[in-house]
Amino acid sequence: MSGEQNEKLTELLKLLKLNNGDLSKLTQEQRKEMKDYKFWKTQPVTRLDESVQKEGPIDRKKTPDEISDQPLPLLGDFEWCTVDVTDQKQLEDVFLLLNENYVEDRDATFRFKYTREFFNWSLRSPGWKQDWHVGVRVGSTKKLVAFISAIPVNLRVRDNTVRSVEINFLCVHKQLRGKRLTPVMIKEITRRVNRCDIWYALYTSGTILPSPVSVCRYTHRPLNWSKLHDVGFTHMPSHATRNQMIAKYTLPKATSTEGLRPMEEKDLDEVRLLFEKYQSRFDLVQNFDEAEFKHWFLGNDEKTASNPSSKVIYSYVVENQNGQISDFFSFYSLPFTILNNSVHKELGIGYLFYYASDADLEYADRFSPEATAALKERLCGLMNDACILARDAKMDVFNALTSQDNALFLEPLKFGPGDGFLNFYLFNYRAFPITGGIKDDKSYDTVKRSNVGVVML
Predict the structure, then answer these.
(1) Residue 330 counted as domain residue
(2) Of 451, 360, 367, nearest to 406 (Cα)?
(3) SS3 letters for 290-349?
(4) Which of 144, 249, 256, 297 could be bridged to 93 by S-S, CB 3.0 to 4.6 A?
(5) Bridge partners, residue 429, by sequence
(6) DSSP reduced 3-state for 422
(7) Which residue intervals define the domain Glycylpeptide N-tetradecanoyltransferase N-terminal in the entry (predicted)?
C-alpha cells in the first residue's frame, strides 16, 4: 500500500473513532469510502494495510458444486436479469443506462458514447457467456437500472498464469447510488463466474479500493486543440495564444514510418509471435490464443466494412524490406458525448491499445542505455504515426496510460498528464506491487517504466 493510501485510510478510521462509529458524521464521500472498505474486508482481496509476503491465491480453490445455483436476493421491486447483448432491444437498454449514468467528468461535461459495434467487440470475445452479462431491472417497469459484465481471460501474473475474468462496465443508475446495489452486483457476478470454475478476476477503478496491485496515470495528446478548447476539454495557458497552442499540437500531414500499413488477417501469426515476445517483459499480461488475437485486433463486426464511421479497433503493422513484420500498434475508438454545448455534440477519442516492437529484443537487458535508446526512438516514430492516423480517423484527442513502455514517448510526443489515475486490482490473488510508469510524485517514470502489460477497456 502506498503512503497516500495508508494516510487516507488512517484518516477515515480516526474520523470514525472520534465519532463513535457514526457514519453520518462523515461526508457523503467519506461514508461511501468507509462502506466500500467494510464490504471489501469480506472479500478475498489484499487488505489496504497488508504487506504481501507471498504471491498466489487467497482462498482455497472450491468446486462449482459448493457455489449456490440461486442468485442473491434483491430488495424491493428489483429483479435480476441476464442481458442478451445480441438482442437489439436489450442492448439499447444497456446503451441507455451507460450513456446516461456511467463515468462522467466531475463537471458533467463529457460522457462515454457507446455503440453496438463497441459492445460486440468488448463483450463478445471468444468464450464469452451470456450469463456473465448481469443486469438489475425494476420489476414493475422492467427498466434496466444496473449492469456488470465479465469476459474470460488467461491472466499471467509474473510466472503464474491463471484462468480468470475481466470485470467491466459496472454501472448503477444515479438515483440508486445510495442503495448499496454495487456490492450485491459484485457478489452476483462472482457467483456466476465461480459456477464456471473460475476463481480469479482482474478489474480497475479510478477510486482506491483494497488494494491496488498497480496504479497508472491517464495522459492525453490533443489532435484537434481548437475543438478541445472550445468544449472545455483543454484550457489556454496564461502565457500562450490560441495560434501558438494550435501550432504546438499540429501533426505532420502524413505518416513517416516506411512499410506502415493496416494489419490484415494474413499477418496474424507473425504479429502474434512478435507480440508474445514483447509482452514477456511485463509482469501483468493477458495471454491471447489465436481466436482471441484475431478478435481483439481485427474486430468481429462486418458492419464496419461498409460503414467506416462505426469502426472500433484500428491495427497497423510495419513490414520491413525483407517482408518481415518488425512492429505493430493498435488503438480503439470510444467517443464522448458533449453535454450542454450548442456547437459540438461529440468528441472523437482514440485510446492506445496494444503494441509490440523488435527494436530492443536483441538486448539481454531492456533497461540498458542502448536498449532504452533504441526502443524510445522506434516508439516515438510509431506513436507519432498512430496520432496522425487517429487524427485522420476524425479523433480529437489520443489517450494513453503510463502502462507498458509508454513512459518513453509520452513527453516527447506532447502527451500531457491527466487528472485521472487507473488502479489495477486482482480478486482472490495476492501479488507484489507492479510498477505503473509513474514516480511517487506522479510524473512519468522513464527509468523503471511500467510492468503492466494488460490494457483494460
Answers:
(1) yes
(2) 451
(3) HHHHHHHHHCCCCHHHHCHHHCCEEEEEEECCCCCEEEEEEEEECCEEECCCCCCCEECE
(4) 144
(5) 57
(6) strand
(7) 57-216
Is position 375 annotated as part of the catalytic site? Answer: no
Positions of the chain with pLDDT lower than 50, given as ranges: 1-3, 5-6, 12-26, 30, 34, 105-106
Same domain, residue pair 328 and 395:
yes
Distance from C-alpha of 234 to C-alpha of 243, rounded to nearest angstrom:
14
Q: Which domain holds residue 9?
A: 1-42
- DSSP 8-state symbol, 431: -
371 and 238 share a domain?
yes
- Using one digit for the tens of pLDDT, what is the confidence trace for 394-411? 999 999 999 999 999 999
The active-site residue, picked from 26, 176, 361, 457, is 457
Is the sign of the CA dihedral 116, 117, 118, 123 positive or negative?
positive
Identify residue 125 by its one-letter amino acid code.
S
Say which DSSP state 206 is in: S
pTM of the entire predicted model:
0.90
pLDDT of residue 448: 95
